[in-house]
Amino acid sequence: MASGIVALLAAAVLWGTVGPAQLLADTDVAPVALGACRMLLGGLALGVFTVRRAGLRTLWRPGARLWLPVSILVTAAFQACFLEAVDRTGAALATAVTFGTVPVVSGLWARGLDGERGGAAWWCGTVCSVAGVGLLLVPGEAARADAAGVFLGVVAGAGFGTYITATKRLARHGADTATAAPVSVVCAGVLVSPWLFAAPDGITEPRAVALVCWLALGTTALGYLLFTRGVARVSAATAGTLSLAEPLVATVLGFVLLGERLSLPAACGAGLLLTGLVVVSLPARGRSRDDAAPHTGPADAAPHTGPADAAQHTGPAPSPDPDPDPNPLSNPAPAPSPSPARRPSPAPAPAPHPARGRAAGPAGPASGGGHAQG
To answer: How far apart are CA 326 and CA 368, in angstroms?
Structure first.
C-alpha cells in the first residue's frame, strides 16, 4: 500500500512538470511537433520495460481490436491539445482545465456504456467543473487564458477521460494494458509525426533537445512506469485522490518559477475545477456502506438457510420415542409425511377421539419428526 502511494505521487509530480518545463524552456518548437517527439521517444523507452510478446498477442483479440484504435486517437489528441493549451493559457490553468474535465468525461462514458448512474458526488463535481471552466473564460488583465486555450484544455481532458475508458475496455476484453500503453503512445506519435516535417523549426536547439529528453524519458517513460506499478497496489478512489498532485505541482511551479498570476475570476474557476476533482475522487462513506451490505447479507442469512441449519431441522428422523406425545392434539390422524416447512396446526378441527389418537401411536416417529421441525 505505502509503496503504491509513493509510486503514484512520484508519477503525478513528474506529470505536473510538463507544462512548466515547456514554458521554462521557451523554445520555438511547435507544441504539436513537441508532442510527437515526446510520444515517439517516450513510448519506445517505455516499451523496453513493459512490452511482452504474449502481451502483444492479447491486443488482437476481438474486443481489444475495437478499442485499441480509440486509445491511439485520443492519446494523440491529448498530447497535442494539452501542450497547445499550455502554450496559450499557461501551465496552471491548462492543467486545471484538463484534469478538471477528466472525471466528467469518464463519468459520462461509464453511464453511456455500462449504465452507471453518477451519484451526488459526481454531479457536484460536474457542476463545479463546468462552472470553473466558465469562470476561466471571464476576461481579466492578469489572466493569460483565452477561449481557444480553454477549449483545447477541455478537449485534452476529454481525450484523457476517453483513454481511461478505452483502457478499462481493453482490460475487460483480456488485453495486457501494460503493453497497450506504450503501443498507444508510439502509434499516436507516428500519427502526429507529420508535424515534425511541417514545423521543424527549433527542434535541434539544445534547449529543445533537453526539453524533449525530459518530457519523453522523465514524464512519459518513467511516469507511466511508476503509474502502472502504483495503481495496482491502491484502490481506485485513492489513485484518483493522489492524481490531484499533478495540477497542484503545475500551479505551484507556474507561480514560483514562471511568475504566473491569475485574475480573481480565473483563480476562482481554477479552485472550482480542483474542488470538483476532489469531490469526484474521494470515496463516499454512505456508498461504501451500501456496497458492503450485499456482501454481509448472505453471511447473516447463512445460519438460517445454510446447509448446517438444514441438517438440524430436516435431517434424519430421530430414533422412535418409546413414549409418543400423549397429547392427541399434537398428533392427529396418520397422514403422509407432512411438508417440513408447514407447522402442525395448534388446534386441528375436528379433534380426534382420544382412543383414535392412541391408535396412531405407532406412526408417531414419522409425524413426530415433522413436529420436531417446529
So the answer is: 12
> Residues 173-177: what's their mean pLDDT?
90
What is the per-residue DSSP string for 308-332?
HHHHHHHSSPPPPPSS----TTTS-
**Residue owning grid cell 383414535:** 356
The answer to whether 279 and 125 have CB atoms below 8 angstroms apart is yes
The residues, ordered by sequence, that sit 6+ positions from 73 with a Cβ below 8 Å of its Cβ are 188, 191
pLDDT of residue 84 exceeding 90, the answer is: yes
Q: Are 135 and 272 in contact (CB under 8 A)?
A: yes
Q: What pLDDT is stored for residue 283 in this prediction?
A: 61
223: nearest Cα among 243, 208, 207, 209: 243
Question: How many Å apart are CA 5 and CA 14, to the nearest integer?
Answer: 14
Q: What is the pLDDT of residues 47-58, one digit of tens each?
A: 998 999 999 999
pLDDT of residue 282: 65
| DSSP secondary structure letters along 119-138 | -HHHHHHHHHHHHHHHHHTS
Tell me how far the alpha carbon of residue 307 is from its chain's centroid. Answer: 38
DSSP symbols for 188-239 = HHHHHTHHHHHS-TTTTSHHHHHHHHIIIIIIIIIHHHHHHHHTTSS-HHHH
Distances (CA, A) of 320 to 48, 61, 317, 323, 346: 77, 65, 8, 9, 22
Q: What is the distance, to the nearest Å, from the Cα of residue 31 to the centroid of all Cα atoms in its chain?
A: 30
| Rounded Cα–Cα distance for residues 219 and 19 (Å) | 11
